[in-house]
Design brief:
This protein is mainly α. Helix content is 58%, strand content 0%. The chain has one domain (30-134).
């Protein structure tokens, strides 16, 4: 005997006890969730900082507001708005030296495309963008 579980072996998880239910996320979706979770965490921290009325603008928020000022007249769109939002978030999370510019741009585009195509993420980031451009310079 090889010690490997055989079909029907009690130690082998079956479909009913695989750990995933209909509402759970399948393992192959993990990469997508990790990317959007990271960006969403950074953006939530930024949004929370922006709601602190009467205080100086948090340094984390400043690059997002600079981006919003530059593209104030543009609607929420993949390029350049979302791609650059993601790039700002990556710069906030990782040091400049951690990711070479070409790598950061490639990763930013990939994450932005993934988020843009996801209806829930798209809606959240569009709301975030609209709040950013509503801030008076």
């Amino acid at each position: 005997m090889s010690g490997l579980p055989t079909p029907g072996d009690a130690s082998e998880p079956g479909p009913q006890d695989s750990g995933y239910q209909d509402s759970d996320q399948a393992p192959e979706d993990n990469g997508r969730v990790d990317e959007s979770s990271l960006l969403e965490e950074v953006l939530n921290q930024t949004a929370a900082a922006s709601q602190a009325a009467g205080r100086a603008i948090d340094p984390v928020l400043r690059p997002f507001l600079n981006l919003a000022e530059r593209y104030r007249d543009r609607p929420f769109q993949l390029d350049p708005v979302l791609v650059e939002l993601v790039e700002v978030a990556l710069r906030q999370e990782f040091s400049e030296r951690a990711l070479p510019p070409a790598t950061r741009q490639r990763i930013s585009r990939h994450i932005a495309e993934t988020i843009f195509e996801d209806p829930v993420c798209h809606e959240r980031l569009e709301r975030f963008w609209n709040r950013l451009i509503a801030v008076q310079p």
